[in-house]
Amino acid sequence: MEQEKKNDKLLEVRDLKVSFFTPAGEVKAVNGISYDVNYDEVMGVVGESGSGKSVEAYSIIGLLQNPGKVVGGSITFEGQDMLSKTKDEMIAFRGKEVAMIFQNPMTCLNPVYTIGNQLVEALKAHDKNVSKEDAEKQAMKMLEEVGINNVEKRMKQYPHELSGGMRQRVMIAMGLICHPKLLIADEPTTALDVTIQAQILELMKKLQKQNHMGIIFITHNLGVVAEICDKVSVMYAGKMVEQGPVDDIFYNPGHPYTKGLLRSMPRVDAESYERLIPIEGSPVDMLNPPEGCPFAPRCEHAMKICLQQMPPYVEMGENHRAACWLRVQDCLEEAKKVDTQTENIEKTEVDNHE
Predict the structure, then answer these.
(1) Would you say 320 and 254 are in contact if contact means Cβ atoms under 8 Å apart?
(2) Which pLDDT belongs to residue 209?
(3) Which of UniProt's keywords are assigned here (predicted)?
């Protein structure tokens, strides 16, 4: 049983630490995060700007730029140690095994090459034996799969001739053309209107089921998470403050930051008008982070220990955990109740015996 469970894991990240060494000092952009992504699973990574979401994704595919550096932890993909791979090995690995869809398709597509040229080039880079004719056929088929019509015409067009939604579909096609096992989507719907956003999410769910991919979906939009993800990791100031199945995160959040994100998001199922409550304060200065919980300076429930010591993870359910001293307090109170009940039962049994 344990072996079967292990085989389900596509990606394993353990205690990953990434720092940027700047003239002002070391910025710990990612500070000891751990998670798994299984086959046929979509994991959402949620957090505000600067929380380290994209940095950890770039670390996985070896696109971390100077002065960024992985300073600790491990990244294992199907048993392969990703951090020990050479630059050439990572070039061969990217696209074929792991692909990434970036936030802004206009800056990622080359403006001087046609759409067809860029798709064919992406395919030929990982399959040296494919002919140009076959590559063009596969590119057109992939464009049709992502919902683009009149593909022969689109193949000859340049990025500026397409709408934002179509450019994003081209980026998805480019990411999937080599049939990767893991797709990293870095806020792929941010620049799109709501209607196109819904279409892109529906498309990604469909292609994920068809190709049995694992997906890491990076976003700050909890509405998108509810739509597409199976489980969620909530990031704040380089740390995973809460992880769990998507239903648990929405209906039983354990960390005040997660609750704050949910309160600041409009709900379509609300019975009456609800005022949105923003999270007070400013994000942490990553050059001088607090000693304890990074969210403590903004938390309305902060205690003295929150400012002094990082809380441990507390299990709140199956595969659901949160790093918060409030949850530690809950566990201690629960244990106290159990002890009291046990004492009462034992006392009752003694009295009955007498």
Answers:
(1) yes
(2) 85
(3) ATP-binding, Cell inner membrane, Cell membrane, Membrane, Nucleotide-binding, Translocase, Transport
Which residues contact residue 135 at a Cβ distance below 8 angstroms, ignoring those fewer than 6 apart? 119, 120, 123, 124, 127
| Entry pTM | 0.86
Q: CA dihedral defined by 322, 326, 327, 331, rounded to 10 degrees?
A: 160
Residue 119 burial (CB count, 10 A): 24
Q: What is the pLDDT of residue 33?
A: 94
| 48: helix, strand or coil | coil
Query: Of the candidates 84, 165, 180, which has an alpha carbon nearest to the alpha carbon of residue 126?
Result: 180
Residue 48: per-residue pLDDT: 87
At 194-207, the pLDDT tens digits run: 887 888 888 888 88
Q: CA distances (Å), 211 to each of 10, 20, 85, 139, 202, in order?
A: 14, 36, 26, 16, 14
Closest CA to 186 of 87, 12, 28, 46: 46
Check the CA dihedral 243-214-269-235 and report its sign: positive
The Cα 295–Cα 284 span in angstroms is 8
Query: 98-101 and 42-46: which strand pairing?
Result: unpaired
Task: Using alpha carbons, list the distances in angstroms from residue 5 to 28, 38, 39, 160.
Answer: 32, 10, 11, 46
What count of other Cβ atoms lies within 10 Å of the Cβ of residue 171?
Answer: 26
Examine the pLDDT at 53 and tell me if it is beyond 70: yes
Q: Show the domains of the chain with their CATH numbers.
A: 2-97+180-323 (3.40.50.300), 109-179 (no CATH)
Stronger pLDDT, 208 or 265, i.e. the higher one? 208
Q: DSSP class of residue 155?
A: H
Whether 68 contacts 52, CB under 8 Å: no
What mean pLDDT is predicted for residues 229-242? 94
